[in-house]
């Protein structure tokens, strides 16, 4: 993962490939802050999420602070952060759970896939 991130986010790639994305985001952010400076936090969240979507998925910038993609990204990052925290999984405290058959995990994977896909 570290090597892939280094390849995607090295200085040359950021300068040459992502500079137009950051430029668009900066302009949209400045206009949003000029129009409604009281909701500056929402504008920062929109700009961050929009830059991620534009760089990762090659999509157009998100114009609205109420875009559903922003809510989805924040929910995903929250869940990812919670899952990565120490003690988030029972198997860390009850090591005997490592021996539960993997077929049990397969039975429950359809449930988790249905949750993630909506």
Your description of this structure?
With 118 residues, the protein is mostly helical. The protein has one domain (2-117). It is built from seven helices and no strands. It has helices at residues 2-8, 11-16, 19-35, 40-57, 68-84, 90-93, 102-117. Helix 3 runs antiparallel to helix 4 and helix 4 (40-57) packs across helix 5. The longest helix is centred in the middle third of the chain and has 18 residues, at 40-57. The mean pLDDT is 79.
User: Could you say which overall geometry the principal axes of the C-alpha atoms support?
Assistant: elongated
Share of helix, binned:
over 70%
Instruction: Give the mean pLDDT.
Output: 79
Question: How would a textbook summarize the main sheet?
Answer: none
Tell me the number of strands. Answer: 0
**What percentage of the residues does DSSP assign to strands (E)?**
under 5%
Low-confidence stretches: none
State the separation between the terminal residues, measured CA to CA: 27 Å
Any idea what the radius of gyration is? 19 Å
Number of helices, where a helix is a run of at least 4 consecutive DSSP H or I residues: 7
What's the number of domains? 1
SS-based class: mainly alpha
Elements, N to C (H/E): HHHHHHH
């Amino acid at each position: 993962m570290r090597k892939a991130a280094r390849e995607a986010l090295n200085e040359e790639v950021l300068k040459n490939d992502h500079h137009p994305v950051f430029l668009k985001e900066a302009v949209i952010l400045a206009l949003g802050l000029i129009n409604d400076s009281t909701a500056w936090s929402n504008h920062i969240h929109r700009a961050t999420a929009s830059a991620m979507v534009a760089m990762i998925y090659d999509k157009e910038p998100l114009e609205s602070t109420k875009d559903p993609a922003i809510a989805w990204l924040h929910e995903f990052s929250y869940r990812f952060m919670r899952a990565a925290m120490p003690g988030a999984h029972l198997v860390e405290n009850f090591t005997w759970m490592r021996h539960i058959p993997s077929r049990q995990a397969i039975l429950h994977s359809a449930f988790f896939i249905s949750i993630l896909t909506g």
